[in-house]
Design goal:
The protein folds into two domains: 23-224 and 335-355, Citrate Synthase, domain 1, CATH 1.10.580; 230-326, Cytochrome p450-Terp, domain 2 (Orthogonal Bundle), CATH 1.10.230.10. It contains 16 helices and three strands. The protein has helices at 40-46, 49-58, 64-76, 82-89, 97-108, 122-147, 161-170, 176-189, 196-205, 211-222, 230-241, 244-256, 274-290, 294-310, 317-326, 334-355; strands at 24-27, 32-35, 38-39. The protein has a three-stranded antiparallel sheet with strand order 1-2-3. It starts with 23 loop residues before the first strand and ends in a 25-residue tail after the last helix. The structure holds coenzyme A. Coenzyme A (COA) binds next to loops.
């Protein structure tokens, strides 16, 4: 229904202010993203994902002592009870890792020692948030092992979250460069304002439900190809194109068919997505290092045509897709990597929502019939 008929209605809530936050800011005009005042480029290039997660949850960058204590807590909280693995083992092998992640958190929830604390208990919410961030890479990594017929591995306390994910997925120690690429991509994916999945998390806990129900809502919302699922779709698209010489004809044909090009466009950024700028550099450098530059070449052609013909630019999912591919990560784990990262932003938002809660309940415009007459079932 056209928005012009209803001046107060904005389809998709575009431009509608859904709340106040101190967690992150998207400055569309300058293509800038800040987490609690820090430019995401600085956090990704100089800091670790753990520092970013701490910043999002506790509101400031940790000093050395706080960081060491946070890392120790994350290491201690990284494993999940055996019952969670037993639950994951019941799923058919064809189960998508996003569904594995959702079940993993749903199965763990009642084991959280703070699970039955009131929804507005700030300290308990922070403890739950840290457990969720700590366990995400284990649930996704060992979930992947289980669906591929392998036994779960015990996480190593000395690993970072990025290393834990790579170690569990591949079963070998990750090299430093791979771990660094993964770590910086986790920082880029950690938080992004009132995006669809974060908003779903906030809506869920605003009923005074719990953080784990919120995480399950977030994972379910992130799964779709218009949101987190775009990184997997973008890689399938690059594979379909195959070689740089086919890219120009492919993209023109797709645009002529009015296809959505996955990994392009963003509700908030009408110019560049700053995360994509950073991730493109990482992906191109990986291509040079591995000698596999064709994905970057195809990407350049698609980006140029999209910019010239549609004035639409890549979002972070586009370069992340071929960066992860060059790291040898199975394509259907790309969106779960987003989960590993975004648990930090989701939980920060849920804690913030519950600290100053009001039920989220928008109105809708009714356009159905208004004066139907009741007819008994046998006379219809
Ligand atoms: C992200 C997205 C959902 C934002 O969409 P939105 O703000 O609702 O904007 P719309 O989908 O209404 O698009 C506005 C216009 O741009 C076009 N457009 C937007 N993204 C496009 C894309 N990826 N490919 C082709 N055209 C696109 C739409 O077709 C539409 O054109 P029209 O006005 O001629 O119909 C959208 O850009 C998209 O679907 N992208 C692909 C999926 C993706 O990469 N998602 C990850 C986001 S981080």
């Amino acid at each position: 229904m056209s928005a012009t008929m209803y001046p107060n209605y904005s389809p998709g809530l575009e431009g509608v202010i859904g709340g106040i936050t101190t967690i992150s800011d998207i400055i569309s005009e300058t293509s800038t993203l800040v987490y609690r005042g820090y430019n995401v480029h600085d956090l990704a290039s100089h800091g670790s994902f753990e520092e970013t997660a701490y910043l999002l949850l506790f509101g400031h960058l940790p000093d050395r002592k706080e960081l060491e204590s946070f890392m120790a807590t994350l290491a201690a909280e990284r494993e999940v009870p055996a019952q969670v693995y037993t639950a994951l083992q019941q799923l058919p092998p064809s189960t998508h890792p996003m569904d594995i992640a959702r079940l993993g958190f749903a199965a763990y929830a009642p084991f959280d020692p703070d699970y039955n604390e009131p929804a507005t208990n700030h300290d308990a919410n922070l403890r739950k948030a840290v457990r969720i961030v700590a366990k995400a890479s284990t649930i996704v990594g060992n979930g992947h092992r289980i669906r591929t017929g392998k036994a779960p591995l015990a996480p190593k306390p000395e690993h970072t979250i990025a290393q834990n994910f790579l170690y569990l997925v591949n079963g070998v120690e990750p090299d430093a460069e791979t771990a660094h690429v993964m770590d910086s991509s986790l920082t880029l994916y950690a938080e992004h304002g009132f995006n669809a999945s974060t908003f779903a998390c906030r809506v869920c806990v605003a009923t005074l439900s719990d953080l784990y129900s919120g995480i399950c809502a977030g994972i379910g919302t992130l799964r779709g190809p218009l949101h987190g699922g775009a990184n997997e779709e973008a890689m399938h698209m690059l594979q379909k194109i195959g070689t740089p010489d086919k890219a120009d004809a492919w993209i023109h044909n797709a645009l002529a068919n009015k296809d959505k090009i996955m990994g392009f466009g963003h509700r908030e950024y009408k110019k560049q997505d700053p995360r994509a700028i950073y991730m493109t550099k990482v992906a191109k450098a990986l291509g040079e290092k591995t000698g596999d530059t064709k994905w970057g070449q195809i990407a350049d052609i698609l980006e140029n045509v999209m910019a010239t013909e549609k004035n639409i630019h890549p979002n972070v999912d586009f370069p992340a897709a071929y960066a992860y591919y060059l790291l040898g990560i199975p394509i259907d784990l790309y969106t779960p990597i987003f989960v590993v990262a975004r648990t930090s932003g989701w939980t920060a938002h849920m804690v913030e929502q519950l600290d100053n809660n009001r039920l989220i309940r928008p109105k809708c415009i009714y356009e159905g019939p208004t004066s139907e007459t009741w007819v008994p079932v046998d006379e219809r």
